[in-house]
Design brief:
The complex is a heterodimer. Chain A contains 7 helices and 8 strands; from the N terminus they run αααβαββββββαβαα. The longest helix of chain A has 20 residues, at 4-23. Chain A is of the alpha+beta class. Chain B is mainly β. The chains are: A alpha+beta, B mainly beta.
C-alpha cells in the first residue's frame, strides 16, 4: 500500500487532534466586522489548521455542524471539500460529510461558515464513517458528492473533474451585495 | 522520475510523481489537510529540508496559497518558518513526501517569518518575492 491517500488517511485523526488543540485561534471579531469592505480588497489568508474546527451555521445562524477536516485537491492547489460533522442536527456524530468548498460561505466574523441547506438536505447528505475514510481516488465517490450538493444547494459545480474551481466570484454574497448597492 | 501522467498541471497546483501503476481516478493528489502536518519535505538530492507545518488558504477561492515549512531546528533556524508557494512543491506519492527543488544553503538564506508573525495578510510585493525566490510565477490577479 504505497498510495499517499491511504497512508495519509490512517494518520488523519491523530494529527487532527494535535493541530486543533494547539493552534485554534481566538476568533477574529471586531476588526473584521467593522471593515468588511476593506477585507474584501486585502488578501486574507487563513491557516488550514484554523479552518478545521470552525463552526458551520445555517442561513438563520443556527449551528448545524463543524468543519473536521479539509479534503484537498493537491494538483489544482485547492480545497475540494470540507469534511463536516452534523452531530448537533442529526444522530450522525460518527459520520463526516464532504461538502464542496464552494457550497460554504465564510461568515463575516471570520470564525464560522454558512451552509444554506435545510435539515432534510443535511440529514441525507453523503457521508462516511470518520474512522473509515472512503477511497478518495474513487471518481464515482466524487461524482456522487458533487451531484448531491450541486443539486441541493445549487452552488456546487457539475463538472466533477474541476471539483471546487470556477465559482470563486460567488463566495461572499453579503460583501458582494454591499458593494453592488453602493453603485460603482 | 515520471512527470504528471495526465499532462494536466494547472498553474496553482503541485506536480505529482510516482503514481502507482495500477492507479486510476483523480489520484493521490486528493488528500486530507490534517494529514499534511508533519509531512517530510526533501530536495531532489534527498536531503531533508524540514516538514510541513500548515497550509495557508485564501478562503473565498479555496486556493492553497502557501505551504508553511518548518526546519525543525535542523539548520539552527528553529524559530523560522518558510512560506513555500504550493506550486513549488512536488508530491512524491511513492516516497510519501514532498519534494522542493532547492538546496539547503539557499533555503537557509530564504526570507522566512517568525512563528509569532504569520503572513496572513501578505502584500503583493511579499507575494512576488516569495514566488521569485522559489522560482515560480506569482498567481494571476
Amino acid at each position: 500500500m504505497t498510495r499517499l491517500t491511504a497512508w495519509a488517511l490512517v494518520a488523519s485523526f491523530t494529527v487532527f487532534h494535535s493541530i486543533h488543540a494547539g493552534a485554534q485561534p481566538a476568533p477574529a471579531t471586531s476588526a473584521a466586522a467593522a471593515a468588511p469592505a476593506a477585507s474584501q480588497q486585502q488578501l486574507r489568508l487563513y491557516r488550514g489548521s484554523q479552518i478545521i474546527g470552525s463552526n458551520v451555521r445555517d442561513a438563520s445562524g443556527r449551528k448545524i455542524g463543524q468543519i473536521k477536516d479539509l479534503i484537498l485537491d493537491a494538483r489544482r492547489g485547492e480545497i475540494a471539500y470540507a469534511a463536516l460533522s452534523f452531530g448537533g442536527v442529526t444522530s450522525t456524530g460518527n459520520k463526516f460529510h464532504p461538502v464542496p468548498w464552494t457550497a460554504l460561505e465564510p461568515g463575516d466574523d471570520g470564525s464560522h461558515y454558512i451552509l444554506r441547506a435545510d435539515r432534510e438536505t443535511i440529514s441525507q447528505a453523503p457521508g462516511f464513517d470518520k474512522r473509515q475514510w472512503p477511497d478518495l481516488a474513487d471518481q464515482a465517490w466524487h461524482a456522487e458528492v458533487e451531484r448531491y450538493w450541486g443539486r441541493m444547494v445549487g452552488r456546487g459545480t457539475a463538472d466533477t473533474n474541476r471539483l471546487s474551481s470556477g465559482v470563486s466570484g460567488a463566495s461572499n454574497p453579503k460583501a458582494d451585495g454591499a458593494a453592488a448597492s453602493s453603485g460603482r | 522520475m515520471s512527470q504528471d501522467a495526465s499532462g494536466r498541471n494547472p498553474a496553482g497546483g503541485a506536480r505529482i510523481v510516482g503514481d502507482s501503476p495500477n492507479f486510476s481516478g483523480p489520484g493521490p493528489q486528493v488528500m486530507a489537510a490534517a494529514t499534511l502536518q508533519g509531512e517530510t519535505v526533501l530536495n531532489p538530492q534527498g536531503e531533508n529540508l524540514g516538514e510541513i507545518q500548515d497550509i495557508m488558504i485564501d478562503v473565498p477561492s479555496g486556493r492553497i496559497a502557501y505551504a508553511v515549512l518548518s526546519f525543525g531546528g535542523v539548520l539552527g533556524l528553529g524559530n523560522k518558518l518558510f512560506a513555500i508557494p504550493w506550486s513549488a512543491l512536488t508530491l512524491d506519492a511513492q516516497r510519501e513526501c514532498f519534494i522542493l527543488d532547492i538546496d539547503r544553503e539557499r533555503l537557509a538564506r530564504a526570507q522566512g517569518f517568525d512563528k509569532s508573525h504569520w503572513p496572513s495578510m501578505p502584500d503583493p510585493g511579499w507575494t512576488d518575492d516569495q514566488h521569485s525566490f522559489y522560482r515560480r510565477s506569482p498567481p494571476s490577479s
